[in-house]
Automatic annotation (TrEMBL):
GO terms for cellular component: plasma membrane. One of its GO terms (molecular function) is branched-chain amino acid transmembrane transporter activity. This is Branched-chain amino acid ABC transporter permease. Coiled coil: none annotated. It comes from Dickeya zeae. Keywords: Cell membrane, Membrane, Transmembrane, Transmembrane helix. It comes from the Bacteria. It is found in: Cell inner membrane. The chain crosses the membrane at residues 6-24, 31-49, 55-77, 84-102, 133-154, 185-203, 218-242, 262-282. It is a multi-pass membrane protein. CDD domains: TM_PBP1_LivM_like.
Length: 295
């Protein structure tokens, strides 16, 4: 398998983990989190700062996970007095505040230049060998995230999240504390995203504020909605299709004589068009969620 395909597979695997994490919030719990990418950035910057200050991994990884969970708790607190739509805007605002703080804190985070030289613990120094190792590790992580998502969806916790999404008043009557359910969903998602961010930092050997751009959140939302929100298999299909569209453009631009300056805009435009067509023809996604009903 060529290095390019392995590269696409690695990035696609990381996006798959992040999309599955978003599905825990949006698909199972019905939470409109537009600041989802901040959890990925937290994991990536945990690795970057740990490398910058020479901290051991046994300290860096738990610290990164803890920071991601703290942010998820802050997001939960934001939603106590806000409806779903306004809470989504608040999460976007929180993510942007964190991104701007990262950009302007030059001495700690490297500012807009980011932090480089982030060698993975299993790095051998051979690029080809490292790519193959990363491919295996990321695929194993995708399998683990998929199994965890399926397990959560079939568990009592997953059923409670769906009940909160569909009938919040009934969930309250049945004794569920909705803020605590939301907090657990966000924390579970934050842990998955944080680990994906750590993998991304190690794989790219670099971390920058670009990892916190809101456009990344909406790209992940597109993957989830195109594939089928609430359906784990649909989410994986959405990741595959959107990643395919994203990586089709570099080949198409030479064939259709498209300027390099338009490549980024064309990528987002194609994803937006695919999302629009999906919303018009299959609002539930290509593989919509199938809820069990009482007969």
């Amino acid at each position: 398998m060529s290095e390019f395909l392995l590269h696409i597979l690695c990035l696609g695997g990381i996006y798959a983990i992040v999309a599955l994490a978003l599905n825990l919030q949006a698909g199972y719990a019905g939470l409109l989190n537009f600041g989802h990418i901040v959890f990925v950035g937290t994991g990536a910057y945990a690795i970057g700062l740990g490398s910058h200050f020479g901290l051991p991994l046994w300290l860096v990884i738990p610290a990164g996970l803890l920071c991601a969970m703290v942010i998820s708790v802050l997001m939960t607190l934001l939603g106590r007095q806000l409806t779903a739509d306004y809470w989504g805007i608040a999460t976007l605002a929180l993510a942007e505040i964190i991104r701007i703080a990262v950009v302007n804190e030059d001495r700690l985070t490297g500012g807009a230049q980011g932090i480089g030289g982030l060698s993975a613990p299993w790095s051998t120094g051979d690029t080809a060998a490292d790519t193959r190792i990363f491919t295996v590790i990321i695929l194993l992580c995708v399998i683990a995230a998929t199994l965890a998502s399926l397990r959560i969806g079939a568990s009592r916790f997953g059923r409670a999240l769906r009940l909160m999404r569909e009938q919040p008043q009934l969930a309250i009557c049945m004794g569920y504390a909705l803020p605590w359910l939301k907090c657990r969903a966000l924390m579970s998602s934050a842990v998955m995203c944080c680990l994906a961010g750590m993998l991304l930092a190690w794989y790219t050997d670099y971390v920058s504020p670009d990892y916190l751009l809101s456009s990344e959140t909406f790209l992940i939302w597109s993957m989830v909605m195109i594939g089928g929100i609430g359906n784990v298999r649909g989410v994986l299909l959405g990741v595959l299709l959107v990643e395919g569209l994203y990586n089709f453009i570099p080949f198409a631009k030479d064939y259709f004589h498209i300027g390099s300056d338009l490549t980024g805009a064309l990528r987002l435009g194609l994803v937006g068009l695919a999302l629009l067509l999906c919303l018009l023809t299959r609002p539930g996604g290509l593989l919509p969620e199938k809820l069990r009903t009482l007969s």
